[in-house]
Every structure is written in C-alpha cells, then in structure tokens.
Design brief:
The protein is 35% helix and 22% strand. The protein has 443 residues and is an alpha/beta fold. It folds into three domains: 88 residues, NAD(P)-binding Rossmann-like Domain (Rossmann fold); 209 residues, Mur-like, catalytic domain (UDP-N-acetylmuramoyl-L-alanine:D-glutamate ligase, 3-Layer(aba) Sandwich); 132 residues, Protein-Tyrosine Phosphatase, Chain A, CATH 3.90.190.20. It has a nine-stranded mixed sheet with strand order 7-8-6-9-10-11-12-13-14, with helices on one face. It has a six-stranded mixed sheet with strand order 15-16-20-17-18-19, sandwiched between helices. Helix 6 packs across helix 12. The mean pLDDT is 91.
Length: 443
C-alpha cells in the first residue's frame, strides 16, 4: 500500500511515521520547504520526501493521500485525486484507524485550546493515561505510533474535520461558532458551521455531544439537523433541566440523579468564556467517571494556554496581557468583555472578512485608546474613529508596545488581542505573542 503525505509539517510527518510503522510505502511531498527538525525525523526514519515541488507522477501512485489541514480542498491536484477515486483524508482520520482509545474531540471557533488543555489536565490529574493532540502538541498520528495510550483529548479545527470519513469521538465538545476562516468556505457561514458539525456525524447513541446552548448558530443547526449522539447542553444565560448552567456565581451540573455545584470565584481561569470552558471540561470528566473532588482541584490549579489572555507583566501599575491567539472578532469580544480597567487595545493584522461592529459596545465601554498593529488598518480606523479619539498606527510589536506604554496610566491595562491573523508582520500568532512579550520585558 502506498501512502502519500502532502505537507511536511507536524501532522504530515506524524502521519508518515505512523504509515511506516503500519507497513505502508511512504512518500512525503511539500510544495514549500520542510523545517529542519522535521527533515531530520524523515531522514532518520528513512522516509522518502521532496520539497519545493509536488511530483505529480509519484503522488498519483498513492492508494491513500493524507493532506495537511493547510491545503484547501479546492486545489486542482486534490480535486483530480478525488476524481480518480484516491481517498484524500486528514491525519486525524488516518491515525484514528489504528487506535481503540477513548477519544474526546473538541472544536469551536474560540475556547477550544483552553477547553482541550483543561480537559486533559483534569483527566491526567485523575491518573488516566491520556494524550493531548490534534491542533495542539505532538500530532495524533505520531503519538499513536509511539505510545498508543488509552485516551486522547483532541483539539480539532474545521480544516481537520473536513478530512474525516469514519472518525468518531466518544465525547464531542462544540464550544461555540462565530465567523472564521470564511475564505476557505466560499464566504458562506453555513458551510463553516456544517464543517464544525462534522465532529458528530459518525457518533452513535452510545456517544455524547456537549454543546453551548447559548450559541445561536449551534441552536439553528440543531433545529434543522439531527445527530445520533446524546445531547448535553451548557449555558451561562439560562437554567437547564439537564447539563450545566450558571446560577448565583455557581456552576450547577445535572448529568444524572446527582447535582454537582462549584463556585466560580475559585476557578484558576476567570471570565464568562472560561466558565463555559470549565463546564464543558467538567462534564467530559464526569462522563469518564472522574471524581468530583479531582475535577474541582484541577479547575483551581490549572494554568492557562500561552497567548490566550496571558498576563505578561505589571509595569508602573499597568497590566500587560497577551491574547495573540485571538485571531477573530469573537475571541477578541471575550477578551474585551473580561477587561475590568480602562484598556489600551492593540489590534490588527490580516483581516479574514471581519465585521468589527460587534465589538462597538465593548469598545465604547472599555477602550481608552487603540494601537493598530497591521499593514492595512483602514477598516479598524474607519470603524472606531467615531468613538475612540486616540488611534495610533504602528508597524511592529516593539513599536506598538512603546506607544501603548506612553498612553496607559496606572491602574489601566494594555491588551494585545488582534482579532486578525498574523501573517502580514509575523510568522504565526505564537511569533506575534512572543514578540509582544519580549517587547514588554524590554520596557
């Protein structure tokens, strides 16, 4: 059997390693360049690869193709492979064929990284053998090749879900849906929503779908479509007969005959969105028979994800917060909503079709000044110039931090929450976040 892997990054190299272990003839092809660390792995494993080109004759010999999530389905070569009947799948789909592990799959436009890390932290604290993979950490395929644990918590993007056929998580979590990556979905929100719901398409009545009952897009899809999974909602807006809800500063969980209550003031992560993340993670853990005391202790001891509302330093009474992972408007909405002091907001980057108007009430209420961090800031300036007097354009993290330092006064906050992708000035949102943190430390 011939396996061709398109893309020599984390997921591609993981799939190649697993392919070799399962006796496939493996060939890796990357149209760009392959990072040194991955090249070493391929060479050490004696896996054939090419970079800077896609050799069509080699690729079309494949019995199965594993495609990097970054390659759109609309690329001519992918369409041609599918026309010829060659299965084109994601690394998640490929890896899932070789494990009997209990899988928790977590998706959503925002909050999925934190919910994944939080769920993994609770399960690991309970003594379970559990891996964390997908959009985070070492690739799922790589982990199965190396250790094949009994449980996995997977953070799943819409791109990864687009490449599944038989993949089925025992517990699926749908954190929320807001417009994102619409450039990959013909600028149609319904296509993106359908992609997210692929997480439940193979679930049976033995499986569970935990979902945000406050999300209008989720509610609409569920009123028009069906899933076989057992539905478990969570909400911070209304009381529920079943699931998790918020009442009088307490999370209340009703999953069976018992009622479990937990105060939100002691949670390690504060903010409304983190209450939802805690609800989803707690219910997942309860379904997997983790003791309530372990859940409570884990929620109180958890340290959050890097680049997600990450406190950096307090300088002259000003708090600096790195939320570089906020690559869409909805993520920034959560960030601004959790600010409790006047805020100098650093925003901007590659706009994926953003509508900033949703942020207007929060900007009026919380934002003192805006520092733009992007090549083209016209849309941001146009949207907010009527409500914010001070808007400054900058061309890099260091300049943005220096400008924010001059504007912010004691008792205020400087928040990097770009609401945009990072590729105009940075390699990635991680690079953007690290440059921001370095610039703050240099002050």
């Amino acid at each position: 059997m011939k396996l061709v892997v398109l893309g020599g990054g984390e997921s591609g190299v993981g799939a190649a390693i697993l392919g070799v272990e399962k006796d496939y003839q493996v060939f890796v092809s990357d149209k760009g360049s392959i990072a040194e660390k991955y090249k070493k792995v391929l060479l050490n494993s004696k896996i054939e690869f090419e970079e800077g080109v896609h050799s069509k004759d080699r690729i079309f010999e494949a019995n199965v193709v594993v495609k990097s999530p970054g390659i759109p389905d609309t690329v001519p070569m992918i369409l041609e492979l599918k026309e010829k009947g060659v299965p084109v799948i994601s690394e998640i789909e490929f890896a899932s064929k070789f494990t009997d592990a209990t899988i928790v799959g977590i998706t959503g436009s925002n909050g999925k990284t934190t919910t994944t890390m939080l769920t993994h932290h609770i399960l690991e604290s309970s003594g379970m053998d559990v891996g964390m993979a997908g959009n985070i950490g070492d690739s799922f395929a790589w982990q199965i090749a190396q250790s094949n644990l009994g449980n996995y918590v997977l953070e799943l993007s819409s791109f990864q879900l687009d490449g599944i056929e038989g993949f089925k998580p025992h517990i699926a979590v749908l954190a929320n849906i807001s417009p994102d990556h619409l450039d990959r979905y013909d600028y149609k929100l319904e296509n993106y929503i359908a992609s997210k719901f692929r997480i439940t398409m193979n679930q049976t009545k033995e499986d569970y779908l935990i979902y945000d009952a406050d999300d209008e897009h989720i509610a609409k899809w569920m009123s028009e479509n069906q899933t076989n999974a057992q539905l478990i909602p969570f909400s911070i807006e209304k009381e529920l007969e079943f699931g998790a809800y918020l009442k009088d500063e307490e999370i209340i969980i009703k999953l069976n005959t018992e009622v479990y209550k937990m105060g939100i003031r002691t949670l390690a992560l504060q903010g409304k969105h983190n209450v939802k993340n805690a609800m989803a993670a707690s219910m997942t853990a309860q379904l997997l028979k983790v003791r309530k005391e372990t859940i409570r202790e884990s929620l109180e001891s958890f340290e959050g994800a890097e680049h997600r509302l990450e406190p950096v330093l307090k300088i002259n009474g000003v708090e600096y917060i790195n939320d570089s992972k906020a690559t869409n408007v909805n993520a920034t909405f959560y960030a601004l909503d959790s600010m409790e002091t006047p805020t100098v907001w650093i925003v901007g980057g590659v706009d994926k079709g953003n509508d900033y108007f949703d942020l207007m009430p929060l900007v009026r209420e919380k934002v003192k000044a805006i520092v733009c961090l992007g090549v083209d800031n016209q849309k941001i300036v146009q949207t907010f110039s009527s409500v914010i007097d001070l808007i400054v354009e900058t061309a890099g993290a260091e300049e943005a931090v220096k400008v924010a330092y001059k504007i912010a006064e004691k008792g205020e906050t400087v928040l990097l929450s770009p609401a945009c992708a990072s590729f105009d000035l940075f390699d990635s949102y991680e690079d953007r976040g690290r440059q921001f943190k370095n610039a703050v430390r240099e002050l």
